[in-house]
Amino acid sequence: MSCETNPNKAARAAGKPGIPRLASRSAFYLGLAAGVVIGGLFLARRRVAGMVRRLFKSRFQAGQGAPVDPCSLPELPSRTVVKPVSPDRVAEDCAACGASPKSKPGLWYVVGGEAYCQDCAPQAAREADVDLAVPSPAPPPTPESIAPTPARTVIPISASLRYRSYDPLNPDGKVETRLERRQINVRTNRGWIPVRDGYAVWTHDGRETGLGITPMVVAGGDGHLRADRERGWTITHLESGMRIGGPFQDPLEAQGLASILAPFDWKRPAAAFSPEELSAINQAVRRYTAALADTRARRAAEGEGGGQGKMNRLPDDVDLYDAIVVDDAIGGGMVRVIADRGEHLRVMDSAGDVYDIPRWKAHRPDELDYRVASVAMPFDPAEQDETCEHCGRWTGDSTGTTWFKIFGEAFCGDCAPLAAREHDYVFPDDYVLPADEVPYEG
After folding, report:
1. CA pair distance 293, 299, nearest whole angstrom
2. What is the sign, positive or negative, of the torsion defined by CA atoms of 252, 256, 257, 262?
3. Using alpha carbons only, what angle is made at residue 11 by residues 7 and 16, rounded to the nearest 5 degrees?
4. What is the pTM for the complete model shown?
5. What is the mean pLDDT of the chain?
6. Rounded to 5 degrees, what are φ and ψ at 228?
7. For 355-379, b where at least 16 C-beta lie within 10 A, e where not — what string?
8. Per residue in 84-116, pLDDT tens?
């Protein structure tokens, strides 16, 4: 029996488009967890060291799977937020520059009982230690709040992307994100801890945003902290290790908010954020959370499930030869089954490495697994009611052909290659060789 692979076959597999990206086992090690940022951003602006020491005192009791008490994390109480008023409701001139409301249109603020124009208000707010509210633009698109595309309506691929959103300070800014499995260091009331199960958020053009998506951190019965996917997911500011928003039901929900926040420079330390930016971030989080709550309520009313749910474990009575599964034992990436041996599976990864994993340490890939690997997810059009985001074809009019999910959107077999090129995706057989092409003996 031999596990040796043919060098030429392996080289051809590794040389195909997209394979170096998240390809090897080592590249699939997981990572993230839970901290706290929106309140924490203010923390860094106000004598970080002393306050963090006080806030880091443990104030939760360790129970089996007990969530870490958010109050025990480095977070400050909410600050005062001053809402803007229209000039016609202001009777006094600006206390700083003396401009009258009639001569200077725009947003005015009343800070400390005195009126300020929008140019002078930020300085007054800093001196008064308050925040200025930024008017809310149209609610941001969420994974489910984008209106469905009418059937047979042709839409350019680039205009139909989910998880594209805007900078709250610049409604015209659009960001498309993707996830990368990685270990993330997060901040808790016990200090920094490494968490392997999570994702770093990258823009589509390859820029690291400085954000991570992490499972909730809970305290086990032994008092040790651990990441628990079933408790939800949060967005983490990697620079400070603190939490920004959440919990969300799954990483894709969190990614929707991460795409909205991505235009900000999150690689800065917490103290570098201005009050205006912090206020805008808070509002973006609130708007997205509210929209997501409405979406969940609608899905519940329509009888739909929410979230990714538990992992799709492999059946014991089905031969998995040539199936693509996710390796939870070693790498966390998608692999091809080249021999089903009952309790163990012999698999090959996209780098051409062949090895064995326990059957119970693998699961069928879901949409998130395909998205992380930038691989088009095949599906049967007879089983899903979808419309091709490029040509407008309806799945009900398509029989005998495979459709694909690419970056969260559905595409028919004819349009999928164009969409794959648009988003730098590969197809499953290009990502990892089909089993009958693997030069394996035994």
Report:
1. 10
2. positive
3. 155
4. 0.43
5. 70
6. -125, 105
7. bebebebbbbbbebbbbbbbbbbbb
8. 888 888 888 999 888 888 888 778 889 988 999
